[in-house]
Amino acid sequence: MKYEWRKKEKEYYIPKEKPQLVEIPEFKYFTLKGQGNPNTEAFKECIGVLYSLSYAIRMMPKNGITPDGYFEYTVYPLEGIWDLTEEGRLEETLNKDELVYKLMIRQPDFVTEEVVKTAMEIVKKKKPHPLLEKVEFESIKEGLCVQMLHVGPYDDEPRTFSVMKEFCVENNLEIKTLAHKEIYLSDFRKTEASKLKTVLRYLVNPQL
């Protein structure tokens, strides 16, 4: 039976439309850093490279390669950590050209450096891209977070963030960094803006 993260890991990926506190353990990811407006071809290429590697691992058995511990699974969703440059933080309104991001796709626990090396070789042959050299494979532990489901356009996210900030104040939680995480449950190329589903997440510390 195929492992479905939407069913098996709801606490991490399918929150409600109200803030909740959650502990996120250490997971493995392919990551790729970038800067600038996400409404560009360069941003789409970053996404494409991460998905190419993720699907190369997912489809390995069909290429005659079965890593130790492999199981059938659904590829995890695209995630991104978003921040602004120093200049961007000084501006009164959001300047998307000053955005700094780290895109990522989680990988199953069986994925090792050796599996990643094989995936790189597969993608370099089938779909070579200069960004492949900049992809990192890393383990990230987010720890204690406040998260909430945002339904609607990305530009309307401040509405949801204000609810999350209020929740943090009421529960004596300190937001650790101005950066935040987004997890994209919808394909923005195929989904109407009003129906986009995005998990928004802040790293937090309890205040004594």
Automatic annotation (TrEMBL):
This is GyrI-like small molecule binding domain-containing protein. Pfam families: GyrI-like. Residues 18-198 form the GyrI-like small molecule binding domain.
